[in-house]
Amino acid sequence: MLQALPPRLARTLEWVGDGIGLACCLFMAWYGTVAAWSSYKGGALSIKTPVTPEWWSLAPLPIVFALLSIEMLFRMKRLHEGVRGPRHDAVSAA
User: Fold this and answer.
1) How far apart are CA 24 and CA 34, in angstroms?
2) Do the Cβ atoms of 25 and 73 come closer than 8 Å?
3) Where are the domains positioned within the chain?
4) CA dist., res. 17 & res. 36, Å (int)
5) CA pair distance 35, 69, nearest whole angstrom
6) DSSP class per residue in 6-56
7) Across the strands, what pairs with 51?
8) Mean pLDDT across the stretch 60-74?
9) H or E element in which residue 57 lies
10) Least buried of 21, 28, 40, 92, by fewest C-beta within 10 Å?
11) pLDDT for 40-64, tens place per residue?
């Protein structure tokens, strides 16, 4: 769809999408950190067949979303340095 829009509008929409994606990733990294830390401090357990500390399952959240935030920054850097128009590498459909 970005290919059908005027180049300036398409580029603006890519910036908006990348900005929203970055904000969501940063929020989830922060929230995951808070949740894992609260679980660790409170000693919460996940009681299924094996009993494990709950924070073990929450610990990957901040790491994964921090890495996704970095990827969003790389996307925004490529958009900033690229040609003024929609990127062909950002289109998922041919």
Assistant:
1) 15
2) no
3) 12-40+52-85
4) 28
5) 18
6) -HHHHHHHHHHHHHHHHHHHHHHHHHHHHHHHHHHHHT-EEESSSEEEHHH
7) 47
8) 92
9) helix 54-58
10) 92
11) 898 887 777 777 888 888 889 899 9
